[in-house]
Hints:
The structure holds 2 protein chains of 2 kinds.
Chain A: H1 10-13, H2 20-25, H3 30-38, H4 41-51, H5 63-67, E1 79-84, H6 93-100, H7 102-116, E2 120-125, H8 130-145, E3 150-153, E4 158-166, H9 176-183, E5 207-211, H10 212-224, H11 226-230, E6 233-234, E7 246-247, E8 249-256, E9 262-267, H12 272-279, E10 289-294, E11 302-303, H13 315-318, E12 328-333, H14 338-352, H15 358-378, H16 382-393, H17 405-419, H18 421-430, H19 437-440
Parallel strand pairs in A: 1-2, 1-5, 2-4, 8-12
Antiparallel strand pairs in A: 3-4, 6-7, 8-9, 10-11, 10-12
Helix pairs in contact in A: 3-7, 3-10, 4-7, 6-7, 6-8, 7-10, 14-15, 14-17, 15-16, 15-17, 16-17
Chain B: H1 6-15, H2 26-37, H3 42-52, H4 56-65, E1 79-84, H5 87-90, H6 94-105, E2 118-123, E3 135-137, E4 140-142, H7 147-159
Parallel strand pairs in B: 1-2
Antiparallel strand pairs in B: 1-3, 3-4
The structure holds flavin mononucleotide, iron/sulfur cluster and FE2/S2 (inorganic) cluster.
Amino acid sequence: MTEFEPVLLKRISKKASPSLDAYRADGGYRALTKALxxxxxxxxxxxxxxxxxxxxxxxxFPCGVKWTFLPKDHPGxxxxxxxxxxxxxxxxxxxxLMEEDPHQVLEGVVLACYAIxxxxxxxxLRYEYGRAYRALQKAIDEMYAAGLLGKNIMGKGLDCxxxxxxxxxxxxxxxxxxxxxxxxxxxxxPRIKPPFPAIEGAFRKPTIVNNVETMACVTHIxxxxxxxxxSIGVPPDPKNPxxxxxxxxxxxxxxxxxxxxxxxxxxxxVTVRELIDKHGGGVWKGRKAKGVIPGGISMGxxxxxxxxxxxxxxGPGKVGCLGLGTAxxxxxxxxxxxxxxxxxxxxxxxxxxxxxxxxCREGTGWMMKILDRMRKGLGRVxxxxxxxxxxxxxxxxxxxxxxxxxxxAGWPIKNAVQKFRSELEEYIRKGERxxxxxxxxxxxx
Amino acid sequence: xxxLSESIRKRIEDYIPRYPSxxxxxxxxxxxxxxxxxxVPRQAIREIAEILGLSSAQVHDTMTFxxxxxxxxxxxxxxxxxxxxxxxxQIRGGEELLNHLxxxxxxxxxxxxxxxxxxxxFAECLGACEGAPAVMIDDEHVHNVTNEKADEVINELxxxx
Lengths: 445, 161
Ligand SMILES: Cc1cc2nc3c(=O)[nH]c(=O)nc-3n(C[C@H](O)[C@H](O)[C@H](O)COP(=O)(O)O)c2cc1C
Ligand code: SF4
Ligand code: FES
């Protein structure tokens, strides 16, 4: 197989300037020019639909299909929200796109606004991305000065404004309706659905929420065509009637115990093992991997024996994981205690639960406390059953919560109780104690 | 006399045309005040509410949901130093780093040094995981922070008032 040539990271890997002039010299805004001159909005929607591109934010919903859920002939306003909250632990691909090649993303945003009939787009950007905020604002200013934003863009009658809206450190504001509530100036409490945002979203108007990488993909689909996009990646699994295929290039984040952590772009469907060995430089310190967190911590855990699983939208489910998620892997080596890993994960969700659903608010807290007791050498064998019961009873799937945070909180715990049962039982039986630094501090956490 | 300066009020008002509802300016307004005053005093909440046509309880409710904002009695130091404790950092020394900084600065997470220069915080994933363990100074990441590098960072923060 020939080496895949990056598309989304093409300019970034060459350290090209993020300026408008440099972007244009590399063919930037060609797609927008083409769309405004030759394509109707409906044609843009159809192209994105035909590409089979599934959203890159975690849920993997087909992007063009989501756009068609907007009411037909709506008098407006319709809003586009770009989800730049990127708070799923171990995920940083959106940040790299925004910091280093903002126009590639912004071109996709204007294309999406044209397609869906939105005149205003809001970037909901996590506060922690100060560099991305400044890079985007600079790029947006350049666009206004060049007539690529504002009124009558390229003389084609398109009006479009893009505004940056900074978050304030809450993971839940990445959930699309939590995002909308937060944008509106309220607590980031996810809404009960339906109505879905396409019908009633920001400011009670039809709204599309899309991820940053999704927007960058739109730019290239319009530039190179839907067929090009569909020629990359993996077709639907004939054995899974619900699989819509995994097309296009994807940014994979690699972190944890590898020699070369970083972000790489590959066709969807690369295996965990290839990511670690070929792209991550192998496990650090000459050790072996014990497992991996695929797709951010919400997607579960894979053991070393499962590393040949392809990371496409269909693969992780075959080994009991929740899904592809953000396609970010974090490797932990064979000297890492699974209890420490689980405690860190449980602590995250207990901290980030928004608190409005009792099973999530209480359940995430209990899981953290049980794991804390376990790491102090006071675990009981029946704790594993309690953890499993809690993990399986919180979430949208069991029907007890409003949003998917709770499913994500339970999944890694449930996976670990099944896949690492003997290690957990032995830990409890021996009354092992964690050596984690967070336990050595007096009075902290 | 208004508590918030003319320039802060003006910056808040400039956000209003961006949104179809004034309430949407709540977060931008809180950020403007918080950045400038290193906390959001009660009187500022009242005036933000007044500018945006809200009750001060609404602004207070939103503000306290995001544990990010500090009230007056918890005023931040000149710099806010965040240490990531989420998975990628946790397993590459993030927790040891947080302990080291607590020792060095003689504060617990959340606390501010007596000279008012540095507030130390723990953070969940900062989105800089390829550079684990990572820290953030206000809103800029620093990658691959060893104890030595952390010492340099705090020296700089102490030296440049
Ligand atoms: C708890 C939770 C957190 C989420 N965080 C993010 C996020 O940070 N970024 C993101 O794009 N999507 C996030 N999502 C998914 C969004 O709800 C939504 O599906 C996505 O932004 C849609 O964009 P896409 O269709 O382009 O993928 C999150 C979902 C949940 C349940
Ligand atoms: S599931 Fe958890 S995070 Fe989601 S709305 Fe309910 S309490 Fe909030
Ligand atoms: S886990 Fe620390 S920056 Fe992501």
